């Protein structure tokens, strides 16, 4: 029985009269428990907490995407440590390696250095650098830094991005959104979700359409130089035929158009924001992707997963070949690509042993039709066909052999057959050497992975890994070049990782330190005729670190920060008589940093800000004879961005400001006459209605 003192009894009576519940000194006061939510990653083919993987992975959940006001993959990548970006998404990379690698061959390239998957469907390499992918109705984005070849295969030498959109549920959900912004930005989005057959079949449909005029003008043509348009439709069906089987079908359609992201320059000084070319530059994509995923839970430990995927891409483009307002030379492109794959794997999860093993079969085809026209007359027409067949066996095991110690082993056998044919059906340029080609390339590689992790405490994990990265060989596809084959390239990466949780899991910290040896590096160089060729010409190395932290200060205030350092160098690289040894990679900023915060007021208003710093980097080398005498560099830049959100009933209003202080900066210093520049101050608002 509770015994009250005279004073406490009087307080109780008075409080009761006022409708207040008193709290006495000997009673425990309930405290609000706030913690960061656990993040589950799936891109390594093992579903586990981000705190339990040694891979350097940055994860943005749908909640993070909402709080940051991100609209595209570019927005997500721009604040990710270890990832550099350029305004307009025309180039980005991980750990100083561009998405297309250093053997850049234009739109026809089938070998990238970074793989991007959306709902298990591989995305076309060129699509990822011409127009940013929308993150409307996206559940999670996982950015893996460093080679992922053991799990992802041929195009993951520098890393991988795994995007997962929201799956259907049996709970009805409907939303529509409209948005407006500077430079003619406008768009509309919608989603619908719900049960089609109760407890058996659910569907989800998401639509997003965006247009904008862009911030670059072309006075010569009297029009916008970089108008952007994207139309995205995605449909998903979830079928549950039994308690042990899940079937997920996904269809997506992407229709995108982008222009030119360069401006004219006078002696290297940009003309903000004008370009004076007399040919309209455009890149158009029509991509359809379909994926079927089956998960069969055989028992409490074993799961059979089958993923069938096909991506079909039509790409067309026109570029001003001479890049002047007077001469009429245009490069015209028509490409068709098909990327199909079948993967089957068995996953297992015992008390002290987890992992998977599986098989992969893939086929990639590409039809190339590139023309060079002078004053409307075709003077060169390159036609080609590339067929690549890939086969792989792979697996990984994580074994806790004693308490707190886990051994990680992985292996992938990858076999590839590449048949490339190139013909010139029109040639009035009288090329000195016939560049036509008919090449057959075969390669087989083993890609091991080995690691060891230790649970220092319940909330702190450290570990080391070594793994081999790989990108397959191929044939130089650039027009007018000698279409010669080149060999695979390999990396060996040694990595130290630490995962920490503090303050009752209100503070999460991650760190990775790495060193990479790169052999037989594929690089592009200009020969004595000025044409771009590809060769295995470099022995290089990379070293660096990535750090990130998230802190839930209160239930209303969260802060985050990240930083990375990347030191790159060609150990031995001589190309066309020029010695580049000792120089750092192009497009590889040493320092990247970001910091941000979000605060939600009692009335529901949320405001956020983030500050992103990106160091300068080499855009091109200046040579004289056999010596590098100088460098063309991009500008270092610090960008301040703002966003806000306010909900009133079923309506949610959002707004954003990017590049608040209207910084002007060069993102790629191509030459004295043409440079790429970053976007100026932009802003926009949106209204969303859910019912």
Automatic annotation (TrEMBL):
TonB-dependent receptor plug domain residues: 51-160
UniProt keyword list: Cell outer membrane, Ion transport, Iron, Iron transport, Membrane, Receptor, Signal, TonB box, Transmembrane, Transmembrane beta strand, Transport
PROSITE patterns the record matches: TONB_DEPENDENT_REC_3
Record-linked InterPro entries: Beta-barrel_TonB, Beta-barrel_TonB_sf, Plug_dom, TonB-dep_rcpt-like
UniProt keyword Repeat present: no
Membrane topology summary: Multi-pass membrane protein
GO biological process: iron ion transport
GO cellular component terms given for this protein: cell outer membrane
Protein family membership: Belongs to the TonB-dependent receptor family.
Protein name: Ferric-citrate TonB-dependent receptor
């Amino acid at each position: 029985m509770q015994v009250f003192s005279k004073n406490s009894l009087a307080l109780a009576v008075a409080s009761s009269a006022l409708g207040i519940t008193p709290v006495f000194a000997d009673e425990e006061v309930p405290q609000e428990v706030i913690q960061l939510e656990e993040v589950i990653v799936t891109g390594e083919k093992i579903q586990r907490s981000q705190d339990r993987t040694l891979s350097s992975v940055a994860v943005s959940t749908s909640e993070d995407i909402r709080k940051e006001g991100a609209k595209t993959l570019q927005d997500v990548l721009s604040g990710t440590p270890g990832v550099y970006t350029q305004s307009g998404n025309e180039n980005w990379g991980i750990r100083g390696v561009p998405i297309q690698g250093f053997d850049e061959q234009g739109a026809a390239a089938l070998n990238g250095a970074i793989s991007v998957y959306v709902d298990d469907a591989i995305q076309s390499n060129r699509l990822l650098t011409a127009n940013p992918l929308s993150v409307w109705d996206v559940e999670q984005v996982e950015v893996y830094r460093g080679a992922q070849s053991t799990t992802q295969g041929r195009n993951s030498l520098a890393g991988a991005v795994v995007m997962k959109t929201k799956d259907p549920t049996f709970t009805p959900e409907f939303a529509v959104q409209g948005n407006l912004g500077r430079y003619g930005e406008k768009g509309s989005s919608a989603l619908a979700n719900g049960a089609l057959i109760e407890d058996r079949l659910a569907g989800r449909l998401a639509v997003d359409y965006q247009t904008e005029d862009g911030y670059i003008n072309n006075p010569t043509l009297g029009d916008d130089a970089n108008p952007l348009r994207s139309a995205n439709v995605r449909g998903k069906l979830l079928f549950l035929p039994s308690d042990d089987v899940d079937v997920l079908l996904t269809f997506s359609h992407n229709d995108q158009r982008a222009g030119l992201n360069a401006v004219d320059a006078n002696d290297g000084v940009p003309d903000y924001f004008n370009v004076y070319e007399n040919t309209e530059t455009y890149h158009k994509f029509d991509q359809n992707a379909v994926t079927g995923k089956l998960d069969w839970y055989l028992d409490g430990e074993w799961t059979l997963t089958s993923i069938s995927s096909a991506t079909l891409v039509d790409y067309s483009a026109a570029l001003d070949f001479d890049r002047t307002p007077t001469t009429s030379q245009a490069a015209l492109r028509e490409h068709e690509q098909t990327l199909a794959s079948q993967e089957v794997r068995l996953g297992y999860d015992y008390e002290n042993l987890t992992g998977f093993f599986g098989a992969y079969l893939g086929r990639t085809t590409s039809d190339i039709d590139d023309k060079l026209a002078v004053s409307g007359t075709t003077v060169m027409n390159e036609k080609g066909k590339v067929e690549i067949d890939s086969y792989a066996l792979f697996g990984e095991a994580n074994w806790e052999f004693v308490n707190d110690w886990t051994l990680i082993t992985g292996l992938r056998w990858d076999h590839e057959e590449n048949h490339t044919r190139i013909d010139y059906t029109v040639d009035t340029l009288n090329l000195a050497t016939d560049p036509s080609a008919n090449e057959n390339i075969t390669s087989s590689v083993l890609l091991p992975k080995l690691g060891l992790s230790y649970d220092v405490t319940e909330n702190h994990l450290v570990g080391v890994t070594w793994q081999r990265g790989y990108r397959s060989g191929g044939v130089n596809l650039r027009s007018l070049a000698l279409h010669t084959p080149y060999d695979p390239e390999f990396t060996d990466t040694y990595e130290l990782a630490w995962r920490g949780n503090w303050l009752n899991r209100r503070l999460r910290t991650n760190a990775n330190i790495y060193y990479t040896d790169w052999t037989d590096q594929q690089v592009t160089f200009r020969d004595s005729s000025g044409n771009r060729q590809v060769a295995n010409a470099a022995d290089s190395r990379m070293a660096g670190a990535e750090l990130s932290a998230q802190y839930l200060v209160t239930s209303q205030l969260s802060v985050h920060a990240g930083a990375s350092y990347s030191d790159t160098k060609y150990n031995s690289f001589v190309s066309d008589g020029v010695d580049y040894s000792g120089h750092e990679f192009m497009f590889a900023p040493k320092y990247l940093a970001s910091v941000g915060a979000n605060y939600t007021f009692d009335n529901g208003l949320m405001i956020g800000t983030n500050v992103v710093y990106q160091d300068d980097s080499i855009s091109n080398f200046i040579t004289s004879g056999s010596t590098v005498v100088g460098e063309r560099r991009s500008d270092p830049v610090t960008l301040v961005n703002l966003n806000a959100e306010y909900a009133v009933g079923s309506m949610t209003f959002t707004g954003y400001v990017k590049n608040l202080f209207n910084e002007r900066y060069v993102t790629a210093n191509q030459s004295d006459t043409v440079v790429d520049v970053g976007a100026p101050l932009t802003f926009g608002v949106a209204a969303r209605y859910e019912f």
